[in-house]
Amino acid sequence: MTLHADMEPAYQGLGRCVCCFWLAVAFDIVGLLVLLIGVFVNVFFYDLLIYAGAIVIFLSLVWWVFWYSGNIEVLSVELEDDVGLVKKDKGALGGIGGAVRRLSNRVSSGIRNSLRRDGGAAPGSRQGGAQRSAADQTGGPVVVAMATLTPNEPTFRTSASSVECYDAEMPPTATETSAT
User: Fold this and answer.
1) pLDDT digits (tens, 9 = 90+) for 82-124
2) What pLDDT score does 115 carry?
3) Looking at the DSSP assignment, which residues form a beta bridge with residue 10?
4) Which of 22, 78, 125, 172 sits at a 20 to 30 Å CA gap from 65?
5) Helix 18-40 vs helix 46-70: angle between axes, to the nearest 10 degrees?
6) How far is CA 139 from the centre of its chain?
7) Degrees (nearest 5) of the Cα angle 85, 88, 91?
8) Over the stretch 69-90, which tens digit does the pLDDT of each residue have?
9) What three-state secondary structure class fits 146?
10) Beta bridge partners of 79
11) Cα–Cα distance list, 25 to 2, 3, 18, 31, 84 (Å)
12) Are the C-beta atoms of 129 and 137 separated by less than 8 Å?
């Protein structure tokens, strides 16, 4: 591993995640050995060995993914756009980019505060609980009034339409009971 001035370390050979690489290789070797013992050795629990070997080989994929993803290299220039790193020569919040970033932060925090369960803003912000209604502040259950209508009882409708509403009468229903 060599270090250059103002550059990241240069890794050669197996890369940065050598431990994950060797764990993946070890899992593959152990899994293959257990699987082959289950196939070629005449023991009464051969099926257990075959399944166990296959599972260990499958688990080695986790270490291979760790090793591969740990060796992905992304240049700092490419990260500036993706993760919001600020270029060193332009300053933290300068120019149009800084104004857009501040506006984006305000909009996203406003949306985040409006989606909170209690409906209020974050502690210490200018919006408070005074703008919420009294029903929102109680946090109690909502009471809904319901009425039971019989089939012959008239229903009251309030409609802005000039079309007349006709209600179809429901036939009386009978319930059957069986003798026990």
Assistant:
1) 666 555 555 555 678 778 888 888 888 888 788 776 555 455 5
2) 77
3) 2
4) 78
5) 160
6) 27
7) 90
8) 998 887 777 777 666 655 555 5
9) coil
10) none
11) 26, 29, 11, 10, 37
12) yes
What is the rounded CA–CA span in Å between residue 32 and residue 54? 8
Number of helices (H), then strands (E), in the chain: 5, 0
Give Cβ neighbours of residue 97 (< 8 Å, ≥ 6 apart).
90
Mean pLDDT, rounded, for 138-155: 67
Alpha helices, H only, the chain: 18-40, 46-70, 76-83, 95-114, 134-138
> Are the C-beta atoms of 169 and 152 separated by less than 8 Å?
yes
Structure tokens at 90: 């332009």
Read off the amino acid at residue 119.
Answer: G
| 82: amino acid identity, one letter | D
